[in-house]
Write a structure and sequence with these properties.
Blueprint lengths: L1 E6 L7 E5 L6 E2 L2 E3 L6 H13 L1 E20 L5 E16 L9 E5 L1 H4 L6 H12 L5 E3 L5
Length: 143
């Protein structure tokens, strides 16, 4: 299970994105849950590790999975991703790059359109800016 975060600026006009250290693409901050964590703990830990910001989870934006898209490991284990995407509020901290996210910045929706990112991150960005009251469920996202 993965958790990711929509971290907006105070005016709720710009969304924080990180440039991933592994593939150079832009993404929302996030990662996988550790054993013993709840969703909020995993989300806030990942945001802090990748950005230096302490955040509070405020609501669930979307749930993403695809039963036809499996991760296969060398030992033969196969896993289906389930990702929960949360809106957050900044509590404190300073933006700080890391090995996981060597570059990070806040962007408007228009600015994000020109950035290289994966399909799942496009969905999460679009759903974040849509600011719907109900949770979005995407059962068949493609990559």
């Amino acid at each position: 299970v993965g958790c990711s975060a929509a971290v907006f600026d105070k005016a709720h006009e710009r969304l924080l994105l990180i440039r991933r250290g592994d593939n150079g693409k832009w993404a929302v901050p996030g990662g996988y849950m550790d054993a013993g964590e709840n969703f909020s703990e995993a989300c806030t830990r990942e945001v802090y590790e990748e950005t230096g910001l302490r955040v509070e989870v405020t609501r669930l934006i979307g749930v993403y999975t695809n039963p036809h898209l499996l991760l296969e490991y060398p030992d033969g284990n196969r896993w289906q991703l389930v990702i929960l995407h949360f809106e957050t509020r900044i509590i404190d901290g300073e933006l700080q790059a890391s090995d996981e996210s060597p570059e990070l910045n806040f962007y408007t929706f228009e600015e994000i359109k020109g950035l290289e990112m994966g399909a799942l991150d496009h969905f999460r960005v679009t759903d974040s800016f849509a600011n719907q009251e109900s949770t979005t469920i995407r059962n068949e996202f493609g990559l």
